[in-house]
Amino acid sequence: MRWYIGKEREPGESEQPYWGGPLRLRLPFIHYPLEWPDFAQGIILCVVPLSIIAALQSAFGIEYEIALSMVIIYHFLAMLHTAFGDPSVAGWITAGIPIYMTFILGYATETSKAGAIQAMIALQLIVAAIFFIMAFSGGAKRLVSLVPPAIKSGILLGAGIAAIVRVWEDSASGIQNGVAKWSPGLGIGPISISFLIAVVLSFFILWSPRSLAYRREHSLYAWVAKYGIAPTFIIGYIVGLALGEITIPSGVLEHGWVFIPKVGATYEALSPFSIGWPSAAMFAGAISTAIVAYILSFGDILINQALIDEANEARKDELVKIDPNRENFICGVRNLTTLFYPFLPLAGPLWTGAQAIVVSRYKNSTPKEEYSFWGGATSFFWGMGFIMFLYPLVLVVQPALPIGFGLTMAIQGYLCTYLAMEIVTSNIERGISGMMGGILATRGATWALFMGILFYLVLEYRTHRENERTENKKT
Q: Is a pLDDT exceeding 60 seen at residue 179?
């Protein structure tokens, strides 16, 4: 049964109904039905946004409950994208987290993290300004169309390699001796049997042709598979408990049933109106880091465009429209929350792993099984939001945080690499893409973009025109 009282789509390829213009407001039940399989996956993957808590404590010197409040507020603001017409399961600008941490720690002292907090405020305000400039100037849409395929592919490939490295390197965030510790690699820690089982089963459900055949042939498998990686996470969790790789949760009922975000305490501890504004030197020092952050977010915009194109190709009954200018505008609004509190990972256009999960289920469903893309994308967020308020459930899944984080990073790595290879068509483009990808993963976005442009100008620019001249001379 579909809980939906709104207007049906027109027959054939058309957009889901909405209110408004460029900002297309869609509300649950009125403009799309909720999707319970995506809701369930959101419940499981709440461990991913929660994984940043240790980093927030380490960077800003704050209590666990303030960090959890920051994550919850950020989470609901990320829903602005699907609420106002941007088909994005939004997330962090993840790849730059080590860069942001390095920048702000230069302003911290042994006795105070106030300088680090102010530096992060400066960085996030500049990032918000860049997003707004690209949105209002129309530069975002032009940039997506003007970037050569080789450079697009290189950005995607670099993001994929960086995600894979982050999964397999032996480092992790966590609590040691009661103090939040954070490793810049953000790896999942020692590779475990439970994680390997979860990741292989997840890939099978999401992308294996045999899985698609099994869905058609076996109703029980089809029912399990429609929940995406939620069943594989549960299997990994159970295996981890059995093998002692995951700690058995304890004391989950000692802190009450419902967590109420500490809004006032968060504002007092982190807002520039409470702790003071960043200095001019902080703003100047943040410019280069902010540019790098936007370059990385541009890679996410390209990934999202490719995923939505795949969704539209697979489902001819609904047209899902993506507008980079609108995407940039909403990212700018979300980053303005730094006036209330700064958020270390920044607010980016896409949580790649989650978007891949949502798009995969949508592509492999009939309109009867999943009526609209918007229902799946939004239900995913509602599932995460639901569990974040239920303190005992948060504490139950917390020991399995590395599995949830590792799964999303592995999915991002797989997805980015195959999309990168689809974009390029010639050996020169493949070579430029490979060089850019390797540089981005090892030396960062600035060097990757610089070298990618140089390689393009030297190897590919105007070569099509030269080839045409050669052919004309022959004829």
A: no
- The Cα–Cα gap between 352 and 355 comes to 5
Tokens of 339: 């006036």
CA–CA distances in Å: residue 346 to residues 30, 38, 54, 301: 31, 25, 16, 15
Give me the mean pLDDT over the 235-263 stretch. 85
Mean pLDDT of the chain: 84
458: in domain: no
Structural domain range at position 59: 34-425
Cα 7 to Cα 4, 17, 25, 30, 370, distances in angstroms: 9, 7, 14, 8, 16
Within-domain flag for 201: yes
Phi, psi of 32 (to 5 degrees): -165, 155
pLDDT of residue 186: 42
Structural domain includes residue 440: no
pLDDT at 318 over 80: yes
- Phi then psi dihedrals of residue 254, to 5 deg: -80, -15
Number of folded domains in the chain?
1
Q: Is the pLDDT of residue 183 over 90?
A: no
Which stretch of DSSP H or E encloses residue 56? helix 53-60
Q: What is the 3-state secondary structure (H, E, C) of 84-147?
A: CCCCCCCECCHHHHHHHHHHHHCCCCCCCCHHHHHHHHHHHHHHHHHHHHHHHCCHHHHHHHHC
Tokens matching residue 48 = 């991913």
CA R_g for the chain: 22
- Write down the residue that tokens 């799309």 correspond to: 32
Burial class (CB in 10 A: 0-12, 13-18, 19+), 147: middle
